[in-house]
UniProtKB/TrEMBL annotation:
A Pfam family: Hydrolase
Organism of this sequence: Streptomyces macrolidinus
InterPro entries given in the database record: HAD-like_hydrolase_sf, HAD-like_sf, HAD_sf
Protein name (Swiss-Prot/TrEMBL): HAD hydrolase-like protein
Length: 218
């Protein structure tokens, strides 16, 4: 969602700052810089998985994740989130074309719901998924893509599934799931070279280009 259909103005990094302070990571130190670099490199991954890597123990990871979710929610309350230009129209156009759209995220459900509420998108699509909805493993694992396939029953096989995202982890999850189309978009965390290196079949300026692309492919 963030970076693909939703512009959050860098709220992930700002919320990480709050989580890091909560766990005693001092801004301006090499430790802080190293952890922030890892957060940037793993955009799209389940946030609890990121914190497990950064802080080592389950207790510290959960403390960091709770602080992150609270900080992100507080920032959302400040109105600092909006749709990527053309994203809602693209979703509605895809659905008019008879396609089923599922929104997935590396955030926890509470954060995902807060974003949907902030945008007025709670009823926009028939299904939204976070890592916990797919057994707990987020990207780059294929689990959320496969869960969407199983739950919606909208396709006869994975070759009829298109995965679109702004990070290399989004692309990897689609490739690993066997999706017929895996597109990277340039409105978020990673550039074209990262998408191509991860196996993207297409790179789009934004998700707004997706309906026309799919109609062209058939």
């Amino acid at each position: 969602m963030a970076g693909t259909t939703v512009a959050d103005g860098g709220l992930v990094e700002r919320a990480f700052e709050a989580a890091a302070v909560e766990l005693g990571v001092v801004p301006g130190t090499p430790d802080h810089a190293e952890k922030l670099a890892y957060v940037r490199a793993t955009m799209g991954e389940s946030k609890i998985s990121v914190f497990r890597h950064l802080f080592g123990t389950e207790d510290l990871a959960r403390r960091a994740n709770t602080a992150f979710e609270k900080a992100y929610g507080d920032l959302l309350d400040g109105g600092l989130v909006e749709p990527i230009p053309g994203a809602r129209a693209a979703i509605e156009e895809l659905q008019r074309d008879g396609r089923t759209v599922v929104l997935t995220t590396g955030f926890a459900r509470v954060t995902q719901d807060a974003i949907l509420d902030a945008l007025g998108w709670q009823d926009l699509v028939p299904l939204t998924l976070c890592p916990a909805d797919a057994g707990g493993r987020g990207r780059p694992f294929p689990d959320m893509v496969l869960e969407a396939f199983v739950r919606t029953k909208a396709a006869d096989g994975m070759r009829q599934v298109a995965v679109v995202g702004d990070t290399s982890y989004d692309v990897l999850s689609g490739v690993r799931a066997g999706a017929g189309m895996v597109a990277g978009v340039l409105t978020g965390a990673h550039a074209e070279d990262a998408h191509r290196a991860s196996g993207a079949t297409h790179v789009l300026a934004s998700v707004a280009e997706l309906p026309a692309l799919l109609r062209g492919i058939g």
